[in-house]
Every structure is written in structure tokens, then in C-alpha cells.
Amino acid sequence: MKRRALIAGNWKMHTTVMDACHLAADIAGQCSGLLDRDVLLAPPFTVLSEVSHVIRESAVIVGAQNVCWEEKGAFTGEISPVMIRDAGGSAAIVGHSERRQIFHEDDALIGKRLRGALSFGLLTILCVGETLAEREEGRTFGIIEGQIRNGLAGVEAGQMAKVVIAYEPVWAIGTGKTASTEQAQEVHAFIRNLISAMYEKSIADQLRILYGGSVNQGNVDALMAQQDIDGALVGGAALNAESFGRIIHFR
Ligand code: 13P
Fold it and tell me: Which of 241, 240, 223 is nearest to 232 (CA)?
């Protein structure tokens, strides 16, 4: 089963308007001619419009780093799927480990965000991943299974075409300590089997599963060569046009 690769850059809480426009323009320029893969940028909300404008003549997809489930209302500090669309975005990330760990978002809240994003047609990346302590206690698969079953609760088979799962082991994020290709492939295969059991094999076969956690120009090729790794969710290395450029041109 050949799945279309997806390389996503999560800019986290970085970039002013000027930084963002330069970075997006440079990346869009490097994407021309790349027809066999998707490239997604997830800048901060404050620069979504500008980034969408800068990349408008490219195939780059723009997405938000989080999303509320309601169209509008009394949700101070939140951004709705309609607002993301209005700013030119067509995708969103939910359940990033920084949301889970720093802001105490739980599976129920993340599931709500995911269903809200899907109901407005956003391509939605659900992030999952175990902490170092959970891995050392041998609980990796149980943690991942819980995050996926709870996160996808109420998501119907017909909506799965718009879902992407990102496996980001917490211990590999921003630490320079990438999971080995074997460790990553093992969890990706587990996720695909789980989706097959929860839905059906054809949905699991089509699902794109990204790896995230210290992806860089030196390790991307080996990661992308794994059978069940369909893309990357890149943090630090996505803030530099040269390194992200090399990552999107993985071989
Ligand atoms: P780093 O690539 O900086 O480890 O961040 C990964 C990440 O959290 C992407 O969402």
C-alpha cells in the first residue's frame, strides 16, 4: 500500500509576522516540483493569515496548532475551526504532548477538539506518545492504545480519510534523542493494527502515521524508509528553511 507522504512543520510558539513570511516563502519555493508528497506548515494562530497568503500559489497546506470544537461563542482564548478556515488554514493539530503535559489537556478534551475539527472538514493530526517513565515501565503500547481509542471515540469510518496520527514519544521531543527506526516502526505498526481492529483494514492501510521527535536532515531518510512511517512532524528543524527543505526532500 503506497501512502502519500506528509511532512509537517510545527512552528510551536515561534515566529513574528516577518519571520513567518520569510520562512514560509522559502519553504514554498522549495516545494515546487515535489509532486509525490504533501507539505504542511503549522504556524502560530497570529500568523496563519499571512502564511496562507504567502504560500497561496504553492501546494503547501497550512494548519493550526490546536482548535476548538465550536464555531463561535464564549470560549476565551480559543480559536474555532471556522476561524482557521477563514485565515486560510485547512488543517489542525490536536493532542500535542505540550498541550497534554503543560496545559493538562486530556483524551476527552482532545477527542472533542478532533471531532470539532473534522466536522468542519479540517485535515486533523492527532498526536500520541508515551513519556520516558511510561516506556521504561513497559507501558508504551497501553498508553498509545488509550490515547487513540479515547481520542477517536465517536469518529466514524467515513471521517478517517481526514485523520492523520502522529506518534511523538515525549522523550524524543526537543531532546535531540530520536527514537531508533526500529522503535518508531514498532509503534507505527502497532497503531496501524489497532486502527484495523477499531475500523477496518482498508482504513488502516490508508491512514498516514507520522513520526515526530527530533527529526532532522540526518535521520529523516532512515525513518521514512520504514514501512509504516508515512511522514514526519517536525519541530525545531522546521524553523530553519535549509534543514526543513532537506527534510521535505527526504529520499
Ligand atoms: P522537535 O522536532 O523539536 O523534537 O519537536 C517535535 C514536535 O513536537 C513536533 O510536533
Answer: 223
Name all domains of the chain by residue range, CATH numbers in brackets. Answer: 5-248 (3.20.20.70)
Q: Is the CB of 236 under 6 A from ligand 1?
A: yes
Query: Residue 185 carries which side chain, given as an amino acid letter?
Result: Q
Please tell me if the CB atom of residue 129 comes closer than 6 angstroms to any atom of ligand 1.
Answer: no
User: pLDDT tens, 128-147?
Assistant: 999 999 999 999 999 999 99
Residues 30, 55: contact at Cβ < 8 Å? no
Q: What is the pLDDT of residue 2?
A: 82
Q: 511532512: which residue's cell? A: 7
> With bands split at pLDDT 50, 70 and 90, how would you rate the model's confidence at 248?
very high
Query: Probe ligand 1: pick from 10, 98, 164, 216, max atoms within 8 Å of CB?
Result: 10
Q: What are phi and psi of 172, to 5 degrees?
A: -105, -5
Look-up of cell digits 464555531 = 71
Q: What atom in ligand 1 is closest to the CA of residue 97?
A: 8
Report the C-alpha gap between 39 and 13 in whole angstroms.
19
Atom of ligand 1 nearest to the CA of 216: 2
% pLDDT > 70, the chain: 100
Q: Is 215 in the pocket of ligand 1 (CB under 6 A)?
A: yes
CA atoms within 13 A of residue 83's CA, in its CB half-sphere: 18
Is position 57 annotated as part of the catalytic site?
Answer: no
